[in-house]
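re the bet — no i am not wrong, look at it urself. input seq straight from the record:
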Amino acid sequence: MFRLSYKPGGKLEFKSFSVAVFYIADDKNIKNNLSALEKKFRTKLSELQIKNILAKKNKQIIISNVKGRPEQIVLNKFKTDEKFTVDYFRNHLAGLIKDFKNDEIQSLHIFIPELKLIKKFFENEEYFYRSFLEGLSLGNYSFDKYKREKDKTRNLSVFIYAEDQKLLKSAIVKNNFLIEGVCFTKDLQNEPPSSLRPFELADKIKETLTKAGLKVTVFDEKEIKKRNMGGLLAVGQGSNAKPRFIVIEYKPKVKVNSIKKVALVGKGVTFDTGGYCIKPWQGMLEMKADMSGAAVVAGTLLAASRAKFPFEILGVIPAAENMINGEAMRPSDIVKTASGKTIEVGHTDAEGRMILADALDYASKQKPDEIIDLATLTGACVVALGLNVAGLFTKNDRLADDLYKAGMKTYDRVWRLPMWDEYHKENESKIADVNNDGGRWGGAITAAKFLENFVDKNIPWAHIDIAGPAIANDLTNYNKTFMTGFGVRLIFEYLSQLGLDKKTE
């Protein structure tokens, strides 16, 4: 679509093919604010334009043929009532940039309203600015790699006008770091499974992240066998494209003493047929995105390295393709994992937790200060929470609280579900240490309790089930059409605060 270039706005000078976006509070002062708008743009609104603006049902008004520049003003009314959220401006601009796709626009001028109008929703002024930038960046995303006729990418200069220029400049820099990571994640998610088998996922991650200065190590099937990663091997043995185990290391030049290392673990099932417990065909259509957790980890590491976070981050990605052939794992197989614990295969479509078992064990042995894993793990979580929110599972209250707050701030929201030990009973096996099929009830919880068996109990750990919000949906303007990149903004913000606060357990 557009090649966006963000710049702080200075003196009001509008060139040809320019559009201004102006936000106005729909309150008792709206008439006075219209006078301020006329003065700012050195124009005079007609009686019809004013009447249309004041009409209660009109939320957005396009003012064209204004005397002078810009040639068009998009006036958006917002009301800070019970329907208003921190996602309002992000979502609006994501939709607006899509509307400009076929317009001959060369410069866009965004006027951010005063923070005092919505202070109770945005405590952080810099992040308030970033929500506008994120909206434009996310709405501008497209994946047309495999189209014969591609839309031509055009330059669009975006001038941002805000109260605090210093914070605005910082917001622009952070947004550019973050969006690079989000777009890399989305590109991986949206690749067809024919071109993103485990070795190809590993190759793409290594190529991109190595250029960014990170160390990427890839274990092939031989090394995976040597390390006794039986869960990963079992899931991948039905595919001709054998598993890979990807380790990403970020080490800062400047360190802090409190937080030394955070491990991020991501499920990387590059395609999931369900194995012999095969999915219906409708259930397979979105399974190219069953590696979303892996993509989020890779994208977050990319953004974190650009932002130069002051502590180590370890990325761990088990990658496999859950296919069917004469070698594929069967229900009732017994699998021995790297931890030494055995798994009875109760269901071959509960494969994600099996590859994560080896990954969480590996991450635990690296002795990080905390572990966070992300996975499109269960349909049960989507049934419980819908597409709007990811399930959060942890026994650590500090982790739960900080991740929840980061989610509410970024709108990559999470909701905590119970981790009571009574749920362990559902994963019991009579012939192995644990069964991968927790039964029908509380499926998202029993999956999390399964994973808990493979995490060092002395390390704070959180599991985030992103099965719902990782998939394209119509809930927001920026999540339509393509896989969403859900989780990158959440974890980036969480890590940002972790570095600032220097908190430990």
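see?? The mean pLDDT is 93. told u. also The radius of gyration is 24 Å. so pay up
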